[in-house]
TrEMBL record:
Domain called Amidohydrolase: residue spans: 40-400
Keyword Hydrolase in record: yes
NCBIfam families: PRK07572.1
Originating organism: Palleronia salina
Keywords annotated in UniProt: Hydrolase, Metal-binding
Pfam families: Amidohydro_3
GO molecular function annotations of the record: cytosine deaminase activity; isoguanine deaminase activity; metal ion binding
Keyword flag Metal-binding: yes
Biological process terms in GO annotation: cytosine catabolic process
Name of the protein: Cytosine deaminase
Length: 430
């Protein structure tokens, strides 16, 4: 007897009519027609069952702080940093914890079960670190939270940032972060990349660095990050986040840069929502999109995961906690409109990001954790198009969140009484 069986599921790889059996929080079988009894049976009714959504780039210390201490009137990255610099010295551990916990509640309802959050270590009080370590412990039963020691004001530029980052790692933060393009000079930026990679190598930790989040095509710290990844033997443990300067670089230079990134084993984490919002602010028209070269990276086999980055904070006044919003924006901004493209972008908010974060037991295979999301959609392409309701969110074989199916009542003579959005896609195309 199984603890749970999901019947008649469609899987992201296209398999239909699959039953998924769960025992002791792990997937015990995936096959059609499982007849054994189960403590709970869920009829997927042919709809998509996905592994959990995974957010590899977020700022949980700032989330839900929109309007504190005031709004970002210019909408720029630099004003957002300045606003956070005003809020950071007066924020308390209690309010940081409360906002982060509220965000985690929202994320779980969207099927997100793993988040990598950058934690600002620029304030030597490290109240942000204390708060997020508490949140990590509290959400552990239902959400895996990884923390990055992030010197928001610059590793060399920020006062006491070097010592504060070291203390944050000693306190239990998981990953070494950085922001080389915010240092005072290009030389300082390159030196910070080297210093931070050295720390990661000495401590045996991964690296996840904000890199070249700018329109400046001469901001080329990702080249240095790739080189230092190889130098310190960090292959498979380094991610470069944002990389938006690449949208302004000439193709000849990029033809050298992308093979270097691929050679280094780095992963990349674009953040389509925030990148589209913050970049190109000095342009009139033509106006740059502000997103790195996702299709070309995927073609070269560079691991690409897509992050949410911000939800209602000094940098981004929007956001729902839904990674399908992120993938939806990526479809438009990258013009990746084919069914295969959308499947690749669905992977970028699920399996790719899980690999980047090194999640153990993730996936829809026998032996994996029984962590799943039942969506009101028939396949990954439709899920990105509709951003549908999460009918069931399952953690270790237990339903932790659920949403009623979306449908509308129609009162028009001679027309159907109920409208279900997912029923309107052509059967042979998307």
């Amino acid at each position: 007897m199984f603890d749970l069986v999901l019947r008649n599921a469609t899987l992201p790889d296209g398999r239909q009519g699959q039953d998924i059996a769960v025992t002791k929080g792990r997937i015990a079988a995936i096959q059609p027609g499982i007849t054994a009894e189960a403590g709970q049976v869920i009829d997927a009714a042919g709809q998509l069952v996905s592994p959990p959504f995974v957010d590899p780039h977020f700022h949980m210390d700032a989330t839900l702080s929109l309007g504190l201490p005031r709004m970002n009137l210019s909408g720029t990255l630099l004003e957002g940093i300045a606003l956070w610099g005003e809020l950071r010295p007066i924020v308390t551990r209690e309010e940081l914890v409360e906002r982060a916990m509220r965000y985690c509640d929202l994320a779980v309802t969207k099927g997100v079960m793993a988040v990598r959050s950058h934690v600002d270590v620029s304030d030597p009080r490290l109240v942000t670190v204390e708060a997020l370590l508490e949140v990590r412990e509290r959400v552990a039963p239902y959400l895996e939270l990884q923390l990055v020691a992030f010197p928001q004001d610059g590793y060399f530029r920020g006062p006491d940032a070097e010592e504060a980052l070291s203390r944050a790692l000693d306190m239990g933060v998981d990953i070494v972060g950085g922001i080389p393009h915010f240092e005072r000079t290009m030389e300082d930026g390159a030196a910070s990349v080297e210093a931070l990679c050295r720390i990661a190598a000495d401590r045996g930790l991964p690296v996840d660095m904000h890199c070249d989040e700018t329109d400046d095509p001469l901001s080329r710290h990702v080249e240095t990050l790739a080189a230092q990844t190889v130098r310190f033997g960090l292959q498979g443990r380094v991610a470069g986040s944002h990389l938006t300067s690449m949208h302004s670089m000439d193709n000849y230079y990029v033809s050298k840069l992308l093979p270097l990134i691929a050679e280094s084993g780095m992963a990349v984490i674009p953040n389509p929502l925030i990148n589209m919002m913050l970049q190109g602010r000095h342009d009139t028209y033509p106006k740059r999109r502000g997103l790195t070269r996702i299709p070309q990276m995927m073609e070269m086999g560079i691991p690409v995961g897509l992050g949410q980055d911000c939800v209602m904070d000094p940098w981004y006044s929007m956001g729902t906690g839904d990674l399908l919003d992120v993938a939806h924006m990526a479809v438009h901004a990258t013009q990746m409109g084919s069914v295969a493209d959308k499947r690749a972008l669905f992977d970028a908010v699920t399996v790719n990001s899980a690999r980047i974060m090194g999640l153990e037991g993730y996936g829809l295979e026998v032996g994996c954790h029984a962590d799943m999301v039942l969506l009101q959609a028939r396949d990954p392409a439709e899920a990105i198009r509709l951003r549908p309701n999460r009918l069931k969110v399952i953690r270790r074989g237990r339903v932790v969140a659920e949403t009623a199916p979306e449908q509308s009542r129609l009162s028009l003579e001679g027309r159907p009484p109920l409208i279900v959005p997912a029923a309107y896609a052509p059967r042979q195309a998307d």
